[in-house]
Design goal:
- The protein has one domain (2-67).
- With 69 residues, it is mainly β.
- The strands form three sheets. Strands 2-1-5-8 form a four-stranded antiparallel β-sheet, with no helix packed on it. It has a two-stranded antiparallel ribbon with strand order 3-4.
- The chain has strands at 2-5, 8-12, 25-28, 31-34, 38-44, 47-48, 55-56, 61-67.
- The protein is built from no helices and eight strands.
């Protein structure tokens, strides 16, 4: 799953199950992020094999949500 805000990727994660619940804050590529006002867009691809191999299938879904400020 990848999450973008204002066109910038703010999270990329390989969940262990078929769901993911965001927390108020997280770290991604050495930066700290928090849910704040804006529109977020998410994308989900199936992952195959070990995470280190980075093998993905075709896009399964995408959507968006907004946080009011």
């Amino acid at each position: 799953m990848q999450l973008f805000r204002a066109g910038k990727k703010v999270l990329s994660i390989w969940p262990r199950g078929p769901h993911l619940q965001l927390t108020r804050g997280w770290r991604y590529l050495g930066h700290s992020y928090r849910l704040k006002a804006g529109v977020y867009t998410w994308y989900v691809w199936p992952g195959f094999g070990p995470l280190a191999k980075s093998r993905y299938g075709q896009l399964l879904g995408r959507g968006s949500f907004s946080i009011a400020g």
